[in-house]
Amino acid sequence: MTDATPADVAALSYEQARDELVQVVQQLEQGAATLEESLALWERGEALARRCEEWLVGAKERLDAARAAAEGS
Known about the structure:
It is a single chain. By secondary structure, the chain is mainly α. It has one domain (13-72): Helix Hairpins (Orthogonal Bundle), CATH 1.10.287. 75% of the residues lie in helices and 0% in strands. The protein is built from 2 helices and no strands. The protein has helices spanning 14-30, 35-72. α1 packs antiparallel against α2. The termini are far apart. 14% of the residues are buried.
């Protein structure tokens, strides 16, 4: 996991957020973290997942707009 703050999640690219999310999941699956650390990882993971979703929704909207423009011409 990076040392970025939750506010920094909004600045991450899709790939950065996805890669960090994979790391968070791996750390949680190891089960070695304390309860407090696990909660912080979970919260970070949720924020990262939301960021990935934002990117995917935006990409879909762009594709839909491009298809609509192509069909309209």
